[in-house]
Amino acid sequence: MFEGLTARAAAAGEARRRAVRARIAAALRAEAPRGVRIEEVDAGVRLSGRGLLLRSMTDPALRWIGARLA
Fold it and tell me: Considering 18, 32, 44, 58, which has the largest number of Cβ atoms within 10 A of its Cβ?
């Protein structure tokens, strides 16, 4: 009985994690400037693109993207 409850809780937690990750990725795709790729990965959401680190220092859209999603 306890194993079944544990398995259901783990499945529900994993489904919630995937849903939140998808929501964050969708919001980032809507907000990300041109040239920034958004990927869903097991650990979360990955932003990538040429010169992304440098651009994140100079482009306000990248600098504040995390704050808008919080």
Answer: 32
- Check: CB of residue 45 under 8 Å from CB of residue 15: no
CB 45: neighbour CB atoms within 10 A?
19
Q: DSSP letter string over the chain?
A: -HHHHHHHHHHHHHHHHHHHHHHHHHHHHHHPPTT-EEEEETTEEEEE-TTHHHHHHH-HHHHTHHHHH-
In the structure encoding, which two tokens stand for residue 2, read together? 């306890």
Q: Are 36 and 8 in contact (CB under 8 A)?
A: no
